Amino acid sequence: MEQSVKVPEVLEERRRLTQRRLKELVAELERTGAAEIAGKSACVYATGSVGRGEMSAESDLDIFIIRDKATASPLTNLNEIRLKARLIEAARNLTFPDFSGDGEYVKSYDIQEDFIKKLGTRKDDYHNVLTARLLLLLESQPILGDDVYKQAIDKLLSVYWRDYDKNSKHFLPVFLTNDILRFWKTLCLNYEERTSESNIGKRRLLNYKLKYSRLLTCYSGVLYLLAVLVRDKGTVSTVAAVEMVRCAPTKRLEFVAKLGGDVESGVEAILNNYAQFLKVCETNKSELEAKFTEAEFKKARFEEAKAFGNDVAVLLEKVGTGTQLLRYLLV
């Protein structure tokens, strides 16, 4: 797996901007004492364009808090309020847009009580735990509490890989793959629920983003696991799983491209199409919603999105053919 693809310049620029803004945010939070409040009992991680490493000047900040009640000094309710207050002020000081929904989605979750005990239960999606957990694994960047962040990932993956020791030579990550597919279908269902939205431009823009960034977040994870199965001759270790988590979605595609041949050319086509998506989304949100009310603009963008989805589907089959995991994607 030595070959590599040429990464579009717009994506390289986004990665550089993301790293710069993350450093500014971490420095601002340390200045305000947020790191001291989180201590060794909590972490804050960013998702969305920050977590994917593709920020633009228009990007907002999507964050989650993980608590670990098992520590000697767990995060108290009052300290959680203090932590959220500093997150709000830091975001404003760095000119990020205010958190969406008046801060409704700035929530905290406990590693054991929420991420692990609710996994697969009826409370999973209802309490938004499914979203917080899968975004942690598929598109996250730690902002505070890197040790707690790593522990949360390790504990979660130990659940998904609980049968690994018995089947280390032939372990298939079916549990995690099924959860990723469940998350993707939940995102699609949630979009359908929003089709009653009266703002047609907003609805179309949501659909457009679903077909690109949401799809890539989910299926880049699946593609990475398939590529590891090919590389490691039919097994995926916990070490490889951690490496997948710490890769941004587009970085996972670069890993997959190292299989070479027509896989490499398939990845290049996907990255180039995705770069066009990023350029389109550089437009101010309200202006972009207005553009999506135009029939010709909407038609052209959705045709590009259809080609993107088709290319991802073809790549899944190319990489997965010959692996035992592929059949779980088809049945």
Give an account of the 3D structure.
With 331 residues, the chain is mainly alpha-helical. The protein folds into two domains: 10-160, Beta Polymerase, domain 2 (2-Layer Sandwich), CATH 3.30.460; 164-331. It is built from 16 helices and four strands. The chain has helices at 9-31, 34-38, 48-51, 77-93, 111-116, 123-126, 129-138, 146-160, 174-193, 200-231, 238-245, 249-257, 261-280, 285-291, 295-320, 326-330; strands spanning 42-47, 62-67, 108-110, 141-144. Strands 3-2-1-4 form a four-stranded mixed sheet, sandwiched between helices. Helix 4 links the parallel strand 2 (62-67) and strand 3. Helix 12 packs antiparallel against helix 13. The mean pLDDT is 93.
Structural class: mainly alpha
Beta fraction = 5-15%
Strand order of the largest sheet: 3-2-1-4
- Secondary-structure element string: HHEHEHEHHHEHHHHHHHHH
Distance between the termini: 29 Å
Number of domains: 2
The rounded Rg comes to 20 Å
Model regions low in confidence, pLDDT < 50 over at least 5 residues = none
* Percent of residues in helices: 55-70%
Shape from CA axes? globular
Total of helices: 16
Quick synopsis:
This protein is mostly helical and 331 residues long. Helix content is 64%, strand content 6%. The chain folds into two domains: 10-160, Beta Polymerase, domain 2, CATH 3.30.460; 164-331.
